[in-house]
Design brief:
The structure holds 2 protein chains of 2 kinds.
Chain A lengths: L8 H4 L14 H5 L5 H4 L3 H21 L7 H7 L3 H6 L6 E3 L1 H35 L3
Chain B lengths: L2 E2 L11 E9 L6 E4 L5 E4 L1 H8 L6 E2 L3 E8 L3 H4 L4 E9 H4 L9 H14 L3 E4 L11 E12 H5 L5 E5 L1 H16 L11 H10 L12
Antiparallel strand pairs in B: 1-10, 2-6, 2-10, 3-4, 3-5, 6-7, 7-9, 8-9
Classes of the chains: A mainly alpha, B alpha+beta.
C-alpha cells in the first residue's frame, strides 16, 4: 500500500527556490532506494532556518510542557496487572502463632492503660503544682 | 445526686451512662494481622499501607476492654446517626492519680471545684450507691469510644443511669467548652524569670518568646 506524504506549512514557508517538490514522494519510493529531491535539496541556508525554527519549537515546548511523575505502582493498581504486581511484593513482618498474637494484643491493652495513666498523672501534677503554691 | 434512673424503653440521650462499653485499643507499630491463609503475621501500619496500597482492609487481632462510658453525641444525632460516641469513665482518684485522697469534705470541695475550673478534660461524676456508683468518677473527654447506635440501642440494659437536667446542662457546657478551646501559649506574657520557673514545672518542653530570652 502506498502512503502519500503531504507537504505541511513548515515546508511551505521555506523560500521557493529551496522548496523541493515532495508531493509526489511515497513510502514505497524510499523503500525502493529512491532518494527524493526533498533530501537532496537541503542546503546550508535552509538547514539554518530549520535549526532556527527547531530551536523556537524546542523552547516553546520546554516552556509549556507539564512535567510530572507518575508512580508506576499507583498505575499498576488501577490496571489488570495489579494482583500480579502485589502478589510478588515482599511481605514485611514476622510470622507468629495465634497465642503470640493474643499476648501482643494484651500487651497493647496494658500499654494503653499505662500511657493514659501517665498522661493524666503528668497533667494533674502540673495543675496541682499551681494550686498548691502559696501566693 | 445528679442522676436519674431511666426506663429501658427510653431512647439513648446525651448524658446516658453505660457500663461495659467496648474500648478497642491498637498500636500503629505492632499489628498482628490474620492473612487469607489463616497465618498470623506481626507487622505495622506503614507496611500494611505499602502492601495494600491503602485501598483494602486487613483483619487484625486487637484487644477489647469493657469500660464505663457516658454518651457525648448530642440528642439529634443520637436518634439518627450510624454511630454513637461515648467518653470513658474512670474512678476520680485514678483519673487524677491521687495517691492519698482528701480526708474531709472541705478538701474534697476544694479539689472538685478547682479541678472543674482548671482541668476541663475531666467531668466530675459523684458517687451514688443507688445507681451502683460506689466511688467518685470522672468522664475523660480525651478517651472517645465509637459504637454502632442501633446495636447499642438493642443493649439498653447496659445503661445504668442518666444525668438529671442540671447535670446534663453542666455536662453539655463542659463538653462544648473542652472542644471549643483554642490552643494558645499561656506563658507568653511572663517575664524571663517567670518563664524560667514555668518551664521548670511544665511537663513538656516550652520555648521562650524573644522577650523572654
Amino acid at each position: 500500500m502506498k502512503i502519500q506524504m503531504n507537504n505541511n506549512r513548515l515546508f511551505s514557508e521555506l523560500p521557493t527556490e529551496t522548496t523541493p517538490d515532495i508531493d509526489s514522494v511515497t513510502i514505497s519510493d524510499i523503500h525502493d532506494g529512491f532518494q527524493p529531491p526533498f533530501y537532496r535539496s537541503i542546503r546550508p541556508k535552509s538547514s539554518s532556518l530549520y535549526s532556527y525554527i527547531g530551536r523556537w519549537l524546542l523552547a516553546a515546548t520546554a516552556s509549556t510542557i507539564t512535567i510530572g511523575y507518575i508512580d508506576p505502582r499507583q498505575e499498576l493498581r488501577r490496571s489488570g496487572a495489579s494482583s500480579v504486581f502485589w502478589s510478588i511484593q515482599r511481605k514485611q513482618g514476622l510470622y507468629i502463632s495465634l497465642t503470640e498474637a493474643r499476648r501482643i494484643a494484651l500487651q497493647i491493652l496494658e500499654d494503653t492503660d499505662r500511657r493514659l495513666d501517665e498522661e493524666r498523672k503528668a497533667e494533674t501534677q502540673f495543675l496541682l503544682s499551681i494550686l498548691e503554691d502559696e501566693f | 445526686m445528679i442522676y436519674d434512673s431511666v426506663d429501658i424503653t427510653k431512647p439513648i440521650k446525651q448524658g446516658d451512662i453505660f457500663q461495659n462499653i467496648p474500648r478497642v485499643d491498637f498500636s500503629l507499630l505492632k499489628i498482628p494481622i490474620i492473612e487469607d491463609d489463616s497465618n498470623t503475621r506481626l507487622t505495622n501500619w506503614r507496611d500494611i499501607i505499602d502492601e495494600t496500597g491503602g485501598t483494602s482492609a486487613i483483619t487484625a487481632i486487637f484487644p477489647i476492654k469493657p469500660v464505663n462510658a457516658i454518651v457525648i453525641t448530642q440528642n439529634c444525632d443520637a436518634v439518627r446517626g450510624e454511630y454513637l460516641c461515648l467518653c470513658q469513665i474512670d474512678e476520680y482518684t485514678k483519673a487524677l492519680n491521687l495517691q492519698t485522697p482528701p480526708r474531709n469534705p472541705n478538701k474534697w470541695n476544694k479539689l472538685i471545684i478547682q479541678h472543674s475550673k482548671m482541668n476541663l478534660r475531666l467531668f466530675y461524676l459523684p458517687a451514688d450507691s443507688h445507681f451502683g456508683f460506689e466511688n467518685r468518677m470522672a468522664a475523660d473527654f480525651r478517651v472517645i469510644l465509637r459504637v454502632p447506635r442501633q446495636e447499642l440501642d438493642n443493649m439498653r440494659d447496659l445503661r445504668v443511669a442518666r444525668l438529671n437536667n442540671v447535670g446534663t446542662e453542666h455536662f453539655r457546657e463542659s463538653l462544648g467548652q473542652f472542644f471549643r478551646r483554642y490552643p494558645y501559649n499561656e506563658w507568653y506574657p511572663l517575664t524571663k524569670e517567670e518563664f524560667n520557673t514555668y518551664s521548670d514545672s511544665c511537663p513538656e518542653s516550652v520555648k521562650p518568646y524573644p522577650w523572654q530570652k
